[in-house]
Every structure is written in structure tokens, then in C-alpha cells.
Amino acid sequence: MSSWTACTPRAVERIDAVAAGPEARFVAADLASLAAVRALAARLAAEGPLDVLVNNVGAMFADRQRTVDGIEASFAVNHLSPYLLTELLLEPLRAGAPSRIVNVTSGSVRVAKRSFEAVEPPGGYYGFHRYGRAKLANLAYTLDLTDRLRGTGVSVFAADPGGAATEMNDGTMRSSRIVSPGLRLLWPLVRRTFERATSGSASVAARSSILAASDASLDGRTGLVIGPDARPVAPFGPATDSRTAEAVLRLSRRLAPLVPA
Ligand SMILES: NC(=O)c1ccc[n+]([C@@H]2O[C@H](COP(=O)([O-])OP(=O)(O)OC[C@H]3O[C@@H](n4cnc5c(N)ncnc54)[C@H](OP(=O)(O)O)[C@@H]3O)[C@@H](O)[C@H]2O)c1
């Protein structure tokens, strides 16, 4: 997969233009590589306590791809990499408490296959469903982590932006191949629904993540899913099933051990 070192630091300039405090910094890392995730975590951990970690990374792949680690890319980028980064940063987050972890989720969890015994579920590859399945894995992990961190001062939230016209949607959602054959029969309707749902601006969609990461109204709270209207919503039921979380954790620990073999 491509290197991400060429990414523009435009976001840093925009943050510095409005934020008080130390200057923002851009650190490049290819989050489709477990080695790069480990290197990023080591670099961040070496800097001391951490007060917020927002895992905003997300990607949808129209066609099946594998990462440098040989792992199906939707699962690697949308779940495994934020999982590993979070686990490797728990010590600095504990040291920075009260601190927060925010994992960005998606409504696509509703179309996901709920089987996590292997990286790839049985059946064909459909990018939208694989993306949703990886996001479901990450949501189940997020809610389980809440319990593990209770009493440590580290709050854990999931934030659902709802939808926005962003690079991720540009291109991947044009082809009926991204959905299962059943949904393809209804493609004009499905596509219109996608386009309606993802037509908003990224800055409005970011409200749920910003609230989860920084709003004082959430001080002392944990385990909430912040919905697209920037208010807590009920979590998607299957993500709260402890058997799902156990299966996701088993798979994640096997694919991305905290200490590499
Ligand atoms: N847009 C929607 O309708 C929608 C709906 C529900 C949830 N979400 C979620 O919202 C979050 C943001 O997505 P977005 O819509 O803003 O899409 P986006 O513009 O494509 O942003 C995705 C982000 O992930 C980063 N990324 C992807 N692959 C990476 C890799 N291998 N290594 C490092 N960084 C990588 C991108 O980095 P670069 O900036 O370097 O490209 C970018 O910052 C994602 O978690 C997504 O799943 C989006």
C-alpha cells in the first residue's frame, strides 16, 4: 500500500490558527502497517502522558486489498490499527488521566456480518459490508475497553459522524460492487440513500468526535456512543454482546500481539 508521508500538514496550520497552547505537529504514519503503528506508538509514548487519543482513521476499499502484513485492508485499517495503537498507548493515557479515547464509528455497522473467528468472513468481498464489519469490530472493542478502564480516569467514547462528502466516499460508493448482490438489485435506491447520507460537510460531521474528545459535559463519563447530532445515542445492540467483543479481542490479539513474536 502507499506511503502516507506525503500528506499535507494543512490541518496543522488550521489548528494553529485558532488554538491556544503548544504548536500542533504532524507525524506521518501508514496505519495500514502494524510496524508503522508500533513505531508511532513508541514515539508518542516516549513523549510522556497523553490526555486524548482520537482514532479517526478510516478507509473503504472497492476491491479486496491486503496490507504489507498480509491482512485484508478494511479490517487492518478500520479496526486492527486503531486497536493496536490504543493498546500500546494505554500507559501514557493512564498517566495523563483524566484522559479520553475516542474511536470514530459508522452507521455501516448495521450491514456487517457478525462473525469474527477469522479476518475474512465467509462469502464474497463487498467493500461497504467489510468496512461495516471492521467498524463493528472496533465498536465492540471500544465498548469492552470501557469496562476494562473503569476507575482509571481514562474515558472511552465512540463517535458517529453520521455522514459527510469526504475522500473516503469519493469513488468507492459509485459502484454497485461495493454492496452485496441482494442490495445491488436495489442499487439506484441504495445509491441515492448513500448520496443523501454522505452529502454533508466534514466540519459538521466532526462535531461528534470533537464533543467526545473535548467537551466538559462529558467529564467523568465513559462508555457513550456520541451520535451524529453530537448527543449520546444507544449503542448498536450487537456491539454490546460480550461474545462479539471476546471474538474480536481473540482475533485482534492473534493478528496484532502487543509484543511482536
Ligand atoms: N464520510 C462519511 O460519510 C463517514 C460516515 C461514517 C463514519 N465515517 C468515519 O469518519 C472517519 C473519517 O473519515 P472521512 O469520511 O473524513 O474520510 P477521509 O477524508 O478519507 O479521512 C480518512 C482519514 O483516514 C486516514 N487514513 C486512511 N488510510 C490511512 C492509512 N493507511 N494510514 C494513515 N492514515 C490513513 C486519512 O489520512 P490522509 O489524510 O493522509 O488521507 C484520513 O485522515 C473515518 O473513521 C470514517 O470511517 C465517515
From TrEMBL:
Keyword terms of this UniProt record: Oxidoreductase
Q: Does the keyword Oxidoreductase apply?
A: yes
Q: Which SUPFAM superfamilies match?
A: NAD(P)-binding Rossmann-fold domains (SSF51735)
**Pfam families registered for this protein in UniProt:** adh_short
Name the residues that span the membrane: none
Entry protein name: Short-chain dehydrogenase
List the lineage, top down. Bacteria, Bacillati, Actinomycetota, Actinomycetes, Streptosporangiales
